[in-house]
Amino acid sequence: MDDAHAVVVGAGIGGLSAALALHRRGWRVTVLERAAEPREIGAGLTLMANALHGLDALGLGPAVRRDGAEAPGGIRDRQGRWLSRVDGAEMIRQLGTAALGVHRTTLHRTLREALPGSVLRTSAEVEHVESGPDRAEVRYRGADGPHTLTADLVVGADGLRSRVRAQLFPRHPGPVYAGSTTWRAAIAFPEPVPAAISWGPGAEFGMVPLGDGQLYWYGALNAPAGGHAPDELAALRKHFGGWHAPIPAILAATAPGVVLRHDIHYLAEPLPSYARGRVALLGDAAHAMTPNLGQGAGQAIEDAVVLGAVCADGAEGVPAALAAYDGQRRPRSQAIARAAHTAGRYGQQLRNPFAVAARNTALRLTPGRAALRGMARYADWRPPAG
Asked: Which of 15, 31, 66, 274 satisfies CB 3.0 to 4.6 Å to 157 for a cystine?
């Protein structure tokens, strides 16, 4: 391959996955990260089978599995009664692997360490991206002043409020509030805990074991945008403290300083394309979705693997390669984004007591294999050959 150069804007999970996918295909890669230190904000996440197959394609599957914990999952009501459970063995039979709970920081470090150290430039605030017929240009401001890079490919992996997306689609309205706010933390909790989400009216509490006595938990509530409490943990205990065990114990084991609170935003208006010229969008920059199917990170990893595959021939065919990337990724990721929003409306956000009772009864009556087949529609993905 010629000295094909890609600039990736953003060093989150999606950006680093894209950098690694391109690097393994022979590209010279530069990753621009506006933060002074590369890090992943958040606590934990669940990697479904599709994300794990993508990490396998990047050569990181064994390392990630070693650092995580299997989390087949299920759904309960706030009294702790199971509404639906996933059979781990059946999940492996259908999808080839169990779901995995992993700390975001651990996954981020694994991706970062798989790349050459010279790839990442921090304190790099991208100001402008421009795509020409033969080359693209990225202007950014670093700690030592302004810089300009030329590239054969630019990847906008700069998250929910993507500057690259705003430049490619200036009339797009951007992310909107989904109607829910969420609290998250990863804590030491040696007691065995099954992966599960629990639903109450307009509320959800989730717990995912991360291995080595670590637990990721989150709570979500219907709420106005922009809310804050003087003591966020106390506010959580007030709402969830009367829910089933071990939720009160989990909150009691949590230090106030580790709790993160974020409103949930998503792209309600889908983009018309994930590529323009020699610039591609990836992850939240392309299809920010609500977390109700646990597919945000998985879809970013899928994007990265497909981008690396379509760009395997180097710089000459980039526009055609990005058209293929858009054709493969946009229909699937936008369908999953729609499904995640719908899942939230009929899951965490549902408040009407009659509707809640009907939903819970329907879940109890649905056979486990049928429920797993429904989930497999989103998690059953394999990387492209080659």
From this structure: 15
